[in-house]
Amino acid sequence: MAESMYRQVARDIEQKIQVGDLRPGEQLPSEIELRDRYNASRNTVRDAIRWLVSRGLVESKAGQGSFVTRGLDPFVTTLAAGPEPETVSRGGEVLALVTTRPRVEVHAAADNLAGMLRLRASARVVSRRYERFVDGVPWSVQTSFYPMDLVTRGADYLAWAEPIKQGALAYLEETIALKQIGHRDTLLVGPPDEAEARFFSLPEDGRIPVITILRTGYTDSRQGPVPFRLTVTVFASDRNQLVINYGEVPSVLDDAVEPRRRVFTR
Questions:
Q1: Which of 92, 133, 139, 181 is most buried when burial is the number of CB atoms within 10 A of its CB?
Q2: Do the strands 75-78 and 240-243 form a parallel or antiparallel pair, or are they unpaired?
Q3: Where are the domains of the chain?
Q4: May I ask the CATH architecture of the domain 5-68?
C-alpha cells in the first residue's frame, strides 16, 4: 500500500533534519511554502508537522511557527510497586498525565494469557484498556486482564467501562478481600504492532521499537502465590526512559540521558 502523502512530506523533512539541512533551532518553512514545495494541501502539511512533533523532531510555537528541536528531551517514568507509574517527568518537571476512559471487553483468553494466569484454555477474561497522553503526546497504552471469576465473586466494577477511582488493587481488596502480595515484571523490546504504530505515529517498518512491560500480580493461596492479573503496558522507545529505584535515592531525577546520546566515554 502506498504511503500517505503526509508521511511522505514528514519523512522528507525528517531526512533534512538528519543530514543537517535543517539544524536544531532552525525554523521550518511556513505552511504555505511547504504546501507549494510538496504540491500538497494545507491539511497534509499540518498532519506532517504533527507527526514530526509527536516524534520529538519538531516543536510548534504559537504565533511563531515550527522549529527543529534542539534535542530529544525524553519522558522519564519512575516505575512504582503499584499498577501506576510513580511520576512522569520531562526536563526535570513533573508532568500531568491524561488518561482516556477504559475500553472494557470480555473475551476468551488466548493460550499465552491463559498460561500466565493459570486458566483453562479459552477461559473468559475481562480486559481494561487505557490510552495515555502527556503534553498531548501519546505516551503509553495499558491493558489489564482479569479472570472473569473475579467479577462473578463480586468485583463487578471490573466489567464496567468506568474508571475505578481508588485503583483496581484497592478495589479488589475492599470488595472480595483479594490482596496482591507481589508482582513480577517482564520487559520486552520489539517492533510495534499495527495498532501501536498507529497510536504512537511510529514507522510501520519496526525501526523504532516499543518497550512492553508484562506485570503479573500474585495473591496468596494454600498452594502459594497464584496469579490474578496481567497488566501489559506499552511505551514508544523514541520518547521514553524507564527508571526503577531501589533503596534510598534522591527524590528528583537529575541524570536523564538523551536516548540517542548514550556514549559515556571518549
A1: 139
A2: parallel
A3: 5-68, 75-243
A4: Orthogonal Bundle (1.10)
* Residue corresponding to grid cell 518497550: 211
Single pTM value for the model: 0.70
Structure confidence by residue, pLDDT tens digits, 130-158: 999 988 889 999 999 999 999 999 999 99
Q: What digits encode the pLDDT tens for the residues 16-50?
A: 988 889 988 899 999 999 999 999 999 999 999 99
